[in-house]
Amino acid sequence: MNNSKYDLTAAIGPDAGSPLCKLLKELTVGNLLEHLGKVTKTSDGALRPLLEIALLDTDDTIQEALGTLAQYHVLSAPIVYPCLEQCRERQNATNNQHHQQTKTHQIGFVDVEIILKALLDLLSNAQYFDILTHIHSRSSDTGLPIRIQVTEQAASALKRLAEPFFSTRLMSLGQSQGAFATDTVLYCKMDTCIQTIIDEGFLFHHLADDGSERVNHRIAITDEQGTIISILSQSDIIAYIYQHREKALGDLRHLTVEKLGMCATPVFCIQSSVPAIEAFRQMNEENVSAMAVVNDQRVLIANISVSDLREVSPMSFEYLALPILDFLMYQNTHKEKVVANYTGDSLLPISCLASTTLEHIMERLTTNKVHRVYEVDDHDRAVGVITITDVLVCLLKLCSSNIE
User: Fold this and answer.
1) Distance CA 64, CA 75 (A)
2) pLDDT tens digits, the chain, 404 residues: what are they?
3) Cα separation of 148 and 94, whole Å?
4) Residue 89 burial (C-beta neighbours within 10 Å; 0-12, 13-18, 19+)
5) DSSP-assigned states of every residue in 21-73
6) Which residues sit opposite 79 in a β-bridge?
7) Phi/psi of residue 347, nearest 5 degrees
8) Phi, psi torsion values for 25, nearest 5 degrees
9) Please, what's the largest Cα pairwise distance for the chain?
């Protein structure tokens, strides 16, 4: 296995990962989907979907797409081609009819990052960031604090761009941003082992249009006819292994972040006073999906990620001009369900120390339904970030240590 960043063989012994390796080779796609309650077996042995699958249509607008992603609490969804009305008919049909009608028309995945790129392209073409610089340079004493002057004028400039952005159709978005991600559509037999799905699906490295290297976080599982059976995510794999951690990992689950060298993903930090739209611009520039929000002492106080874009609507579009903390508090207040990224009423994200164990990292990811855990030092300063992909890669290294 060449996917791993870590060399743990000497530390854990040549056979320590054997139970995990056995689990990943014996667990099939069908069994995992059944265990997760996503499918059930019919009398003839076929698998029938139990959960409604979020689908996007090429004729959907960005506003409709964001609404769908927010409704299903996902960051990406398959995009299909026929029309939206047929998609809705499928969703209202019986499970068997849904199974028959969803086939052959899927053309890839749309995720929030594609929508973010479309937003930044629109702002760039409208010279928004140039306007923002101009606003900063000419703000003067008009009886209001400069911060309020700048925010109000920047929000006004954003508001004028809301309608053209939210009315953009996904098909034209796909044409401007490049082809939709087709390598997240994986045909496999239901008896395919999870080890294969991880290697050939989740950790299959591909180049994005911007030249950056990406992995797949969600995969559409289809049958031979192209019918979407279910969606499988990296989070599903982590959750399953966590539920079976004693058998699969044994004492390995007590190894620490420091011992495993898990915090290999660099953390990108941003000051809390920076406008939210600038944070999204920097995410796109750095090819990351989240940033640690810190104060002047680099103390971690919040997390901003592409998922925060899902709740943005034409009515709230101008709030992207607010400082990050104000934007996040507005978003958190107006959501029907408080985002699991945050603990209680605080914006403080899930974090860990170098001494935190693998078991507790998996528990925090699974229980809080988040995609990352920030590592902090003894002074709560952000020093690293552990993503779901980092954990999956580490688990594979533990698994493969017995064959290297």
Assistant:
1) 14
2) 334 343 444 444 445 568 899 999 999 998 999 999 998 888 877 778 888 889 898 889 999 999 999 999 999 998 887 544 454 454 555 344 443 334 446 667 888 988 999 999 999 888 887 766 665 554 444 444 444 545 677 888 888 889 999 999 998 876 555 556 655 666 677 888 998 888 888 887 654 555 556 678 888 887 777 778 889 999 999 999 999 999 999 999 999 999 998 876 789 999 998 999 999 999 999 989 999 999 999 999 999 999 999 989 998 898 999 899 999 988 887 654 434 444 444 689 999 999 999 999 999 999 999 999 999 999 999 999 999 999 999 998 888 664 33
3) 53
4) middle
5) HHHHHH-BHHHHHHHTTSEEE-TTS-EEE-SPPP-EETT-BHHHHHHHHHHHT
6) 56, 108
7) -90, 0
8) -85, -25
9) 76
- Cα–Cα distances (Å) from 323 to 196, 222, 280, in that order, read 44, 43, 12
Residues forming a β-bridge with 193:
28
CA torsion sign, 381 to 384 to 388 to 393? negative
> Three-state SS for 392?
helix
C-beta separation of 12 from 401 below 8 A = yes
Q: What is the pTM (predicted TM-score) of this model?
A: 0.82
CA 336 to chain centre: 20
Placement of tokens 């401007």 in the chain: 176
CA-based R_g, the chain, Å:
22
Residue type, 137: S
What helix, strand, coil percent values describe the chain, rounded to 5? 45, 20, 35
Strand-pair partners of 106: 80
What whole-number distance in Å separates Cα of residue 202 and Cα of residue 232? 9
